[in-house]
Amino acid sequence: MPKGSKELTASRREEIVNACEQLYRTMSFKDITIKDIGEVTSFTRTSIYNYFRTKEEIFLALMQREYERWAQEMNNLCTENETMTAEDFASAVARSLESHEQLLRLLSMNHYDMEENSRPQRLTEFKEAYGASLDAVRACVRKFFPDSDCEKFIFVFFPFLFGVYPYSVATEKQLDAMRDAKIDFKLHSICEIVYSCVIQLLGGAK
Question: What is the pLDDT of residues 194-205, one digit of tens each?
Fold first, then answer.
């Protein structure tokens, strides 16, 4: 790690993650390189290796930040409301995740390779953010629906999130392939998919 203040280190790491996020809006994970990310930052490409050893570590940091932001929204939802109906809670969670499409897209990637190619410290930092999101949703469910099976909700809902993006967003190539395969399909929005899942898990309205 280069010499400098903690603030400078944090600022440089944030700039790298921001550059990765910018590229990820129009490029795929496999096409983005450390060189590409370096070209979007204000310092040399080789300096990136002072903060991240691999491309996977940068993407893991991006996903960590997305989890942190979403967890904060869920914590706010919990503290700002005394009670919520199943419908209101499902709508709030669905709208929140719709605003975090980046997180859902990252979740649809191969986590195994990403985590295997990251150092233990980076992986631990990511897992802490992931755990915080579990706790935030868990707090909401326990507060608003004390009679529900909270752990069952968590057990089903979080794995479910890994498939939301592929079922709500498709490229023209994917759409053409499904038409050619004569698959009867209809894409639904992130809001629709998440709302339906939360409602079913809470035993609420259709």
Answer: 999 999 999 854
Q: Is the pLDDT of residue 75 over 90?
A: yes
Question: Given this model, what pLDDT does residue 1 score?
Answer: 47
Question: Cα–Cα distance between 148 and 46 in angstroms, integer?
Answer: 52
Q: Are residues 103 and 79 in the same domain?
A: yes
Burial class (CB in 10 A: 0-12, 13-18, 19+), 25: exposed
Is 140 in contact with 81 (CB distance < 8 Å)? no
Query: How many whole angstroms separate alpha carbon 161 and alpha carbon 97?
Result: 9
47/72 same-domain check: no
The CATH number assigned to the domain holding 112 equals 1.10.357.10
Alpha-carbon distance 153 to 147, whole Å?
A: 12
Residue at a domain's end among 52, 68, 90? 52
- Within 10 A of 128 (CB to CB), how many other CB atoms are there? 12
- pLDDT average, residue stretch 34-43: 91
47 lies in which domain range? Answer: 1-52
Asked if residues 154 and 137 have their Cβ atoms less than 8 Å apart, the reply is yes
CA dihedral 64, 67, 72, 77 (to 10 degrees): 180
CA 28/CA 171 separation, integer angstroms = 12
pTM (2 d.p.): 0.91
